[in-house]
Design goal:
alpha/beta; FAD/NAD(P)-binding domain; 7-stranded mixed beta sheet; 11 helices
Length: 347
């Protein structure tokens, strides 16, 4: 087959690398950014326990890309807005790292056929390819729009701090009321860090970032903004346009709603696509099954944001959420404790 992969983020780069191993197919990638400005926009934190195995399939050693090895994450749940963490949860990390996401993407696609600075017309793609993979993330440029989707606006800065003057030594989150989002500080090593925020209610993301920039002076290297879709795959159908286009990754909702994290889920989704390339109906079923728990987590977030969550009425859902994360501590890269989840649920 002739396959077009549009959007070279985590999922698109993984597909280019893995599909390129199958010489029966001719695979071409398209990326709207130029090769000079191509960037990995969202935060660069993930679990090395899971990511190591995934990128090993691409012939890469994940240890070569780790920037900061986390030991503890402070989750500030207090009302104080001065980032003092007077009331906080201290999470012990078990493989949570920040890594050079852009370098991983660049190494994944090395030697593949990528057309940078291209936003192909859909008809042209249909005329020239047997299959079109929409891995354009939030925008899902080549797929029908879902009838009802939820997304969170986010802003992020890459910062450089003077030696010995970084605001925090490890990961820090500031949770917003009703679990509508959070502010993040992710160390990148050598005085660099990503700071940013996302807020469904669009009240706190820019305000908290500006307060942080004012309180902790540093050099702004880059600023980016993007929305993140937190609707799960079940709410992000259709996965296809019914003709030649199929969605992979965030374009079909593979972001864990509680954390807004899509690196591992989108890579999982890309692998499911590879495994089911000859049976796209089975691919759809596999995605819905793999990410079934995301629908429950999404409903939990919706109830919290809307004020409809009740510990009494929704206790079973909260227990399922806890059991899911507790059973996959290595995947999330952190120790999961019931008491911590209860504190977060009370926000």
């Amino acid at each position: 087959m002739k396959i077009a992969v549009v959007g070279i983020g985590v999922a698109g780069a993984y597909l280019m690398n893995r599909l390129g191993d199958d010489h029966d197919n001719h695979v071409v990638g398209f990326e709207r950014m130029s090769d000079k400005t191509h960037d990995a926009v969202c935060a660069w934190a993930t679990s090395e326990n899971t990511m190591s195995g995934l990128i090993a399939k691409c012939g890469l050693n994940f240890d070569d890309y780790i920037l900061h090895q986390g030991e503890n994450m402070t989750v500030d749940i207090g009302k104080d807005e001065n980032f003092c963490a007077a009331e906080s949860i201290d999470l012990r990390l078990k493989g949570m790292v920040s890594y050079d996401k852009l370098k991983v993407i660049q190494d994944m696609i090395r030697g593949t056929d990528i057309r940078f600075g291209k936003v192909p017309n859909k008809k042209d793609l249909e005329d020239n390819f047997d299959l079109i993979v929409d891995s354009t993330g939030f925008h899902r440029d080549y797929l029908p729009k879902p009838s009802n989707e939820t997304w969170i606006p986010c802003v992020q800065y890459k910062m450089k701090y003077e030696s010995g003057k970084t605001p925090f030594d490890d990961f820090y989150l500031k949770a917003f009321p009703s679990m509508a989002g959070y502010f993040w500080y992710f160390p990148l090593g050598n005085g660099y860090a990503h700071i940013g925020a996302g807020d469904y209610q669009r009240k706190n993301n820019n305000r908290f970032v500006e307060k942080f920039l004012h309180r902790y002076k540093g050099q702004i290297i880059k600023k980016v903004g993007r929305p993140v879709r937190i609707s799960p795959p079940k709410n992000s159908e259709p996965f296809t346009d019914g003709r030649k286009t199929i969605g992979v990754g965030e374009s079909i909702g593979t972001v864990y709603p509680l954390l807004g994290e899509g690196i591992i889920p989108s890579t999982w989704c890309a692998e499911l696509f590879i495994q089911n390339l000859e049976n796209l109906s089975q691919y759809r079923r596999s995605v819905l099954k793999k990410f079934e728990i995301y629908s429950l987590v999404f409903k939990f977030i919706q109830r919290k944001i809307s004020g409809r969550f009740s510990f009494f009425k929704n206790a079973f859902e909260l227990l399922r959420l806890y059991n899911h994360m507790k059973g996959q501590e290595d995947r999330y890269g952190m120790e999961i404790r019931a008491g911590d989840l209860m504190k977060v649920a009370k926000l």
